[in-house]
Design brief:
The structure holds 2 protein chains of 2 kinds.
Chain A lengths: L4 E3 L2 E4 L5 E6 L6 E7 L5 E8 L2 E4 L8 E4 L6 E5 L8 E8 L8 E2 L3 E5 L1
Parallel strand pairs in A: 2-11
Antiparallel strand pairs in A: 1-3, 3-8, 4-5, 4-9, 5-6, 7-8, 9-10, 9-11
Chain B lengths: L2 E3 L4 E5 L4 E3 L2 E3 L4 E8 L5 E7 L5 E3 L5 E5 L4 E6 L8 E9 L9 E2 L3 E6 L1
Parallel strand pairs in B: 2-12
Antiparallel strand pairs in B: 1-4, 3-9, 5-6, 5-10, 7-8, 8-9, 10-11, 10-12
Classes of the chains: A mainly beta, B mainly beta.
């Protein structure tokens, strides 16, 4: 049973480019959560999505960041016009139940902005 | 608002020695508490969780943690360290029943090294 998959594992972007991070939840899970880990910090909640719905985006920066979880395909975290401060590890988690703290995490995507 | 403090960003023990990783939390509501482990290049794996039942929680790989409300602590212990325990450990808190209990708040992590 495959776990949570994230790709790419490492992503390098120049300032001003767009970054797209993908997350495929565990089989049977329809709830996805994104967290960001800045250097020397703990993981911080960004957004909670169900299929085709954003449930809670209270942790998302107001500009340049967006997330979606379409009916088909992976969840996407999109960062437009990246800046050096966006360099971080981005983790995706999924759960089988609605709004659950029993979350299964992927290996993360390390984004580096040059 | 909730927060988690992990004392010691790096803990080093000898194989066979006691492992003690410290975690203190603050929460305005009764919390749920978690310990996760992350091995290199892998995702976070749940070790154990406290959800207001028994205060002493047993997890995988011989780890356990005790919830102490008076001390607002949830320290992780293992009686005898094994080389395979070397990893980074994260303590996390969420709101309990009701509210946004899916929103985990993490500490900065403690890197555990085990010396032969």
């Amino acid at each position: 049973n495959a776990g949570v998959m994230q790709n790419p594992r490492h992503l390098v972007r120049r300032r001003g480019q767009e970054a797209r991070l993908r997350c495929s939840p565990m089989k049977g899970h329809s709830h996805v959560y994104w967290y960001r880990q800045l250097p020397e910090e703990g993981l911080k909640f960004m957004v909670y999505l169900q299929k085709e719905n954003i449930i809670d985006e209270s942790g998302m920066p107001k500009e340049r960041f967006s997330a979606e979880f379409p009916k088909e395909g992976p969840s996407i975290l999109r960062i437009q016009q990246v800046v050096r401060g966006d360099s971080a590890a981005y983790f995706c988690a999924s759960s089988i139940n609605s709004g659950s703290n029993e979350q299964y995490f992927g290996p993360g995507t390390r984004l580096t902005v040059t | 608002a909730q927060s988690v403090t992990q004392l010691g960003s790096h803990v080093s023990v000898s194989e066979g020695a006691l492992v003690l990783l410290r975690c203190n939390y603050s929460s305005s509501v009764p919390p749920y508490l978690f310990w996760y482990v992350q091995y290199p290049n892998q995702g976070l794996q749940l070790l154990l969780k406290y959800t207001s039942a028994a205060t002493l929680v047993k997890g995988i790989n011989g780890f356990e943690a005790e919830f102490k409300k008076s001390e607002t602590s949830f320290h992780l212990t293992k009686p005898s360290a094994h080389m395979s325990d070397a990893a980074e450990y994260f303590c996390a808190v969420s709101e309990g029943v009701g509210g946004s209990n899916y929103k985990l708040t993490f500490g900065k992590g403690t890197l555990l090294t085990v010396n032969p």
